[in-house]
Amino acid sequence: MKISSNWLKDYIKTELKTERIGEFLTDIGLEVEGIEKFESVKGSLEGIVVGKVLTCEKHPNADKLNKTTVDIGNGKILNIVCGAPNVAEGQTVPVAVVGTKIYAKDGSFFEIKEAKIRGEVSQGMICAEDELGLSDDHGGIMILDETKYEVGKNFADYFELANDEVLEIGLTPNRTDAMSHYGVARDLHAFLSTNQQKSDFEKISSVALNNEGSHNFTLEVENTELTPRYIGAVIENVKVGDSPSWLKDRLKAIGLSPINNIVDITNYILHGLGQPLHAFDADKIADKKIKVGTVDEGTKFTTLDGVERILNGSEIIIKDGKDNPMCIAGVFGGANSGVSDETKTIFLESAYFNPVAVRKGAKFHGLNTDASFRFERGVDPNITRTAITHAIKLIEELAEGKLVGDLLEEYPKKIEDNYVIIRFSKIEQILGTKIHREKVKEILKALEIQVLNEIQNGFEISVPTYRADVTREIDVIEEILRIYGYNKIDAPQKISFTPVKLSANDQDELENSWARTLQSLGFNEVMNNSLTSVKDETDAVKLLNPLSGDLAFMRKSLLEGLLQNAVYNINRKNQDIKFFEFGKIYHKKETYEERKQLAILVSGRNVAENWLQPKSATDFYNLKAYVKVLLERLAIDYKEIALEDERFSDAIAYECADETLVRIGKVAPQMLKDFDVDQECFYAEIELEFAQKLRSENELKFKDIPKFNKIRRDLALLIDKNITYQELYQTAKKNKSPFIKNINLFDVYEGKNLPEGKKSYAMSFELLNEEKTLEEKEISHVMDSLIKSFQKEFNAELRG
Description:
The chain is an alpha+beta fold. β22 and β23 form a beta hairpin. α5 (245-253) packs across α6 and α6 (261-273) packs antiparallel against α9 (384-398). The model has no long low-confidence stretch (mean pLDDT 91).
């Protein structure tokens, strides 16, 4: 949001410089992100002087150029080559001397230098209006009235040029009270007045109006829940035209383009006081009746931008007496009822509309206007009359209009200030420091929060309606701290806390443990938006009121977000990807389903490039190993099965109790192509709630470290090619021996010297008796039983 320093000082008088104001605003939560200079004429005509053309003759070496001598005062005569067709001897003209910067519309400039043009010296430039930024006219040089302009004078002295400093405020959505110059001034004054800084601020109120005669317009509000307050005024004999320079400069400073005096006044009130207004051509209102309500679904309506829109029936609509739509209330006006150059009578609207209804209407039609931005966040319902009276005064002054008859108003139930109780003990608990109750009272008064009653441990207070976000005790405490000053709260030198024992029922502890493990393995954590777009809407959860088409669905998988992270990094030459994310996914089947997962994505090299280790691309088995490291913390048994999933070209799953715990796969080429990823990616997802359930059900027991050594034995098995290591592993796990502690596959061989259709697996087994040293016969008994199992199940043969 842009705030003009000059405009701000219309409401608050202070000697502070703009930079200092910016610092104070940032301190109270209105973060100033930057300060820009504004000039009504770029360059402020610096370096432009009034000159008189003494001689003018054809350039000897160019048909379309003239060679002139120009007097710029103080006895200085310049030689200037000029290409304008209307230059002539005796003219009074604006001259840009050497060193002057001439600005283009886009802000770029060139500097006037002494140069030779076709062999003739040129020591300046005689300027046209567009070159000076005074208009778009480039028909020739600007010829001045010699009776009004004195040779040698600065050209800028004859103009009222506006120079301003504009603060860019990064406004948070809750601060509707500060979405105007008046609101910012009010907040700044609250801070200055309670922190020994001089400022003068006067609260805005309604102004007295003088109306003549009467009008025959009527008002009907169909639903007071959608429109709690509505005020209208009829103003006759308006003259629509250009706004005065001061008003144009105010709007230009904050990035608005002036349109005409009526529209500019409504924008001035909007950005000045924070209340959106809308002006209708009163002669186009059928039956001279204003109706505020809804229309049937499917009704067609053309807005000011010339777009025909299909109304959905829930928007608040301003209609005429024949129920013809004239405006989407609080959002956008209609093409057929707006103010034009021919308008003579206007109907001026000031209202408070239901914020939720305005937001739904704006989002449905993809509109985001200055009015909707404020209405949907909640404007002050009790400033509507103040705003319209100030607007009427300006219209009378700048457009020669005249208010006729009384204001039309519907406000059946006044919206009251919010009642809150605050306790000093709570203030001290939250802030960690004690603020004197008189200081608290002073701050509340500066914020226009009325103290209704002093109670034993605090105040009963009334919060004004313009603070829509201050409804609870904690909100008031935050307001007190803002104005008191965050910087006055000392950080404690020592922080005391009581360690809390985390149980196996704490899922956060599991997530933190897994996150630390992955980080130690070189992974980076990412966080992606839960809102996305989907190609296949099957089972997808769609938002009723999405922010945009690209954010219309809840995500069905974490994979898409991680692929977007991957391609972002790959495009920036960071091709070794190790990412993980904790997040929720959403599906709509028989019921709505929401699950939390841990997702892992790897791509590129497994180990960073260095001289000692060879370049090695990460693969499916690297990812599988990372997953197994995490699952070891669950201390559970699981089985591996093949998985069919359109996201993967090859995939497996780990199951417990016939429920899927983990999915691991190589991302399908088509999916990589869709995301413009040109390198292999491997992805795993773990069902967090299920993992936590298994963890909490598993009774962890601690035992002493064994006193005896493990014994290792190896087996080299010749088996059929279609047999997987997982099958061998599961068979070995079923062995009844309590001495088998670890099983590992350390070599796979397929090639020469093996029968057709065979392969060789070399497996190691670690054996341990925790009570004594294993004897050779015990070891042989275990190994024999394993060999028999492999021979029986897989027709395996021992290799020598």
